[in-house]
Design brief:
By secondary structure, the protein is of the alpha+beta class. It is about 20% helix and about 35% strand.
Amino acid sequence: MISARFSGRVEQFTLDAALEIPGQGITGLFGPSGCGKSTLLRCLAGLLRLPGGYLRVGGEVWQGGSKFLPPYRRPLGLVFQDSRLFAHLSVRENLRFGLRRVGNVRITEDAVIDFLGLEPLLARAPATLSGGERQRAAIGRALLAQPRLMLMDEPLAALDRDSAHQILPKLRELSARFGVPMVYVSHHMPEIERLADHLLLMKEGRVIAAGPLPALITDLSLPFATQQDAAVVLELEAGIYDEAYDLTSCTAAGVAFTVPGRLGPAGSQIRLRIRASDVSVAKDRPTASSILNTLAARILAVEAGSGPHVSLVLGGGPVRLLSSITRKSWDTLGLRVGDEVFAQIKAMALAESH
């Protein structure tokens, strides 16, 4: 478990943030610009010391009372928006810089090079690398510092879409493979949805909500479920691949889905993002339909504003979905909270979500 509290003023900004997050997996730190995300991350790193606060990582006190470990004594890895590689060193020399102050080496150089695909880059200078290559090298250097905590401050923000999509799966795998918890700052919620297990929501210097990602993004009292790009994330297990139709049968907590493409060998874990705008509802089970994904569900909650849309939280057994429909459809179907309905999701809507 990682527990922290930081309070104080930084110029004209006041931070008063408390957090308690799991000591494993990825915690997404999200909020509007200027809410204090990067300031909180700097406090966790020891780059900023406020008069009030404490930090415990796995039972070890890094800050509290008169005790304050400076950044170089904190076993953590830092990755920023810009790679901050040393320009006069090769990629291999940058990687080995992360090993300079460590004693017990549990994350090896060879493992990091293989994991991040850095072998072809080792002799090159940072100036000759693409943005995505520089960030992969920066992540490798941070891992070789043998961190007990990884801190990432919008590491993909400066990359083009293709480069970011290549690195995202590696970030998702990194925490589990090397056993290092991660706090990941981003202003882009779909990015956090693809990565995080846990979520911290900040506003005006405070943490206003915290918990497992699936629970928070379907909470209608928070801003996620009613926004235009609202979505849920499901952890699916790949099943049988149908080569004739290029479709893979998957399950999420026992609920079946059909997803386009070959997603990997049977048993592979896939994170699927399902947009609320891609989920329709019907009162009766559809017949003779082109839609391949239909599941029985119950309307658990509804948020209807003055605009044209109604946001629904649907429960299909252990699976939670969001649906955005028009108020006219809501009224025409005579829907109410507690009604049994059928949720429909086009398979092609899932083609770009994994």
